[in-house]
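## retry 2 of 3
previous attempt timed out at serialization; input unchanged, resubmitting
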Amino acid sequence: LYVIGTIEMALQSKITVYVALAGVLAMMGGIIYYASLGNVELEQVEIELQSVELINNDTINDKIKLNVTFLVKNPSDTTFTVSVIDYNLYNNGVLLGPGKYSTEDVSMPGRASFFPDNEIPLSNIFVLNKANIESEIFNSIINGPNHFSAEGKIITQNTWTTIEKEFKSRF
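## retry succeeded, writing output
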């Protein structure tokens, strides 16, 4: 009789462990599902190239610095932050090179918050070295006319979710 009771108790303990594991897995699945509910709203982010301004023409080192500004809009009902805008900058259809706006090293509370129906310009410095492109293209940026465009991806985040969205924009 004692052996039968021990077997039943061991079986009951295994069932309890399996039920507990199933409960933990269900809870993890629920968290993932809840986190994915904000994906649709984060994907509504809008980004456009707002301006590209020449801020420095270093003739000694043959470099120019451009202030590249993107206007980021939040048409959704969710507040989010922007951690990265990774882009290629073009002038008159010619690739000038890659650029990156990044706040990855800043914690989320320290970043600009995009509240619902809000828009914020985000700027960064784009350095162009004359050795990396043709002389004519380099000089056309200084003298004009210029038709800048950008394409790349923007990474938005809220508390639960991170979304990458590709974009193309002209100025």
